[in-house]
Design goal:
about 140 residues; alpha+beta; Nucleoside Triphosphate Pyrophosphohydrolase
Length: about 140
Amino acid sequence: MYKNPVPTVDIIIEMNDGIVVIERKNEPYGWALPGGFVDYGETVEQAAIREVKEETNLDISNLMQFKVYSDPKRDPRLHTISIVFIGKSKGVLKAGDDAGNAIVVNPEYMTLSLVFDHKKIIEDYLKFKEKNFSGE
């Protein structure tokens, strides 16, 4: 039997000059970017759209693939590979599914403790924004 990494998605949702994070109801507990496992038969883009709707009640547009994160230790439960997307939000933010809370935070001043490798993802996102949108 082959043992392969499990595909997941995480989404950086840009909203009101910040990004959306959720408080997880399930282990590992803590704050995270919205996201989850890719279901059999769906594309990673479809998974991203579905997970955002389930966890935040938001619709996303301008979905753009950002980076892939594959460190075998990124998720303490099992080896996952996350395809991370960036998208703009539409709708009213409201926690749902396995999210206990959903808030918008300024990523430059975030003091929340993040699970998985989401702190690194957000740091990479900030570097990307600075490099690509700083007006240089």
